Amino acid sequence: MFYQLHFGGSVIKSDIFILWPISIDFRAAIPMMLRHINKMAEADKLEAAVAAVIAEGKDVTYDMKPDRNDPTAVGTSQMADAIIEKMK
Q1: Fewest 10 Å CB contacts: which of 34, 74, 75, 81?
Q2: Is 36 in contact with 2 (CB distance < 8 Å)?
Q3: What element of type H or E holds 16?
Q4: Other residues' Cβ atoms within 10 Å of the Cβ of residue 34
Q5: How far apart are CA 42 and CA 13, in angstroms?
Q6: Contact 11, 17 (CB under 8 A)
Q7: Considering the entire predicted model, what is its pTM?
């Protein structure tokens, strides 16, 4: 019911995951699931944290940078950590 419809995968470069279909996972499927189980505040908090990290543009993967060769791009774990920090 809340399955993400993403047929690609994370790109692995030097053992670091560098691409994440965050718009599907954290901006759609997970908040939808949380709302389904009546966790409205948690869904809103997650969406706000994701939006804040993306808007800040600091701790995002290369696919979310204006220049895909930007050396400041982080891996997926670091982006997830930034989202978690925003949720605290």
Answers
A1: 81
A2: yes
A3: strand 16-17
A4: 19
A5: 33
A6: yes
A7: 0.75
State how far the Cα of 82 lies from the Cα of 3, in Å rounded to an integer: 24
SS (H, E, C) 28-75: HHHHHHHHHCCCHHHHHHHHHHHHHHHHHCCCCCHHHCCCCCCCCCCC
Calpha distance 83→88 (Å, rounded): 9
Q: How does pLDDT run across 12-63, given as a tens digit for each residue?
A: 455 555 555 565 566 677 888 899 999 999 999 999 998 999 999 999 988 8
Q: Among residues 68, 57, 54, which one has the least CA distance to residue 18?
A: 68
**Two structure tokens written together for 29:** 């499927």
CA atoms of 17 and 74, how far apart (whole Å): 9
